[in-house]
Design a protein that fits this description.
Layout: E1 3-7, H1 12-28, E2 31-37, H2 42-46, H3 53-70, E3 81-86, H4 93-100, E4 105-109, H5 124-131, E5 136-139, E6 150-154, H6 162-175, E7 178-185, H7 194-208, E8 214-218, H8 222-232, E9 237-242, H9 256-263, E10 268-272
Parallel strand pairs: 1-2, 1-4, 2-3, 4-5, 6-7, 6-9, 7-8, 9-10
Antiparallel strand pairs: 5-10
Pfam family, one: Usp
Protein name: Universal stress protein UspA
Organism: Muriicola marianensis
Length: 273
């Protein structure tokens, strides 16, 4: 893992993400690209009426100063940091930066859920997930000494998720984490007998060319199953596939992907299908 992108808006949540990135960067000898997006628009920058070029320069210099102060932290000492400031808040630009610098992953903060409404849905984190071609790790709380020992990967064991599984397996290997694959068996039309579930899983693993152990976990919903299984093995990270711009909700039925990300007590990482 050579390069990690961390979008920051100077919030507490973005610092949580930066600390996790720093922890991983020290172990993997990675560079961190710290990305800050200004909320300027093209009209403000190009207009000759009411907004002058020197004002744009002033705002950029102000952002550079604030970003420099934000990065003056002891936990970042010894890590190669590259600040990147963009004029616009265009989340598609994250892909361009990732491609230009051959980045391996994005780590960013999110408020998660406050118990009254879902913050992740419609948030900056969700927009980055929708656009990103590389894995996105969403962090919602401070995680001192972040280390991934147990990594849960949940999917529907259909061929469409094979590429995401390969990425998750490679990610676990790089970090020396144990990969726990889980199939959530729920009541209703989607319920499978043990034999049928194993037949589905074995066909999937055969296509993947993997000898991976898989747990069949029974629960009342996929979201509850993923979260309860993860808690039962003391998982450090949950991985789920996503169709990207179609959103997390298009992998699982309904909005399960977003529900998992909102309600998980541990970070969630998404892998593009």
């Amino acid at each position: 893992m050579k390069t990690i992108i961390v979008p920051v808006d100077f919030s507490e949540q973005s610092e949580y993400a930066l600390k996790v990135a720093a922890s991983l960067a020290k172990k993997q000898q990675s560079e961190i690209l710290v990305l800050h997006m200004l909320e300027l628009n093209e009209a403000m920058i190009t207009s000759s009426e009411g907004f002058h070029p020197e004002q744009t320069v002033f705002l950029l210099k102000l952002a550079e100063k604030r970003l420099s102060e934000f990065l003056d932290k002891d936990y970042l000492k010894g890590i190669k940091l590259t600040p990147v400031i963009k004029h616009f808040k265009v989340f598609g630009e994250v892909n361009e930066i990732a491609e230009k610098h051959n980045a391996d992953m994005i780590i960013m903060g999110s408020h998660g859920s406050d118990g009254l409404r879902e913050i992740f849905v419609g948030s900056n984190a969700e927009k980055v997930v929708r656009h990103s071609e590389i894995p996105v790790l969403v962090v919602k709380s401070e995680l001192p000494g972040f280390k991934i020992d147990n990594f849960v990967f949940a999917c529907n064991f259909k061929s469409e998720s094979l590429s995401a599984f390969q990425k998750a397996r490679d990610f676990a290997s790089k970090l020396g984490a144990k990969l726990h694959m889980v199939y959530i068996n729920t009541p209703g039309d989607d319920f499978l007998s043990t034999n049928d579930a194993y037949e589905k899983i074995n066909k999937y693993l055969e296509m993947a060319g993997a000898g991976q152990e898989v747990t069949i976990y029974n629960d009342y919903s996929v979201e509850k199953g993923v979260l309860n299984f993860s808690e039962s093995i003391n998982a450090d990270l949950i991985g789920i596939p996503t169709h990207g711009r179609k959103g997390l909700s298009h992998f699982f039925m309904g909005s399960i992907g977003e529900d998992i990300t909102n309600h998980s007590k541990v970070p969630v990482i998404t892998f593009k299908i």
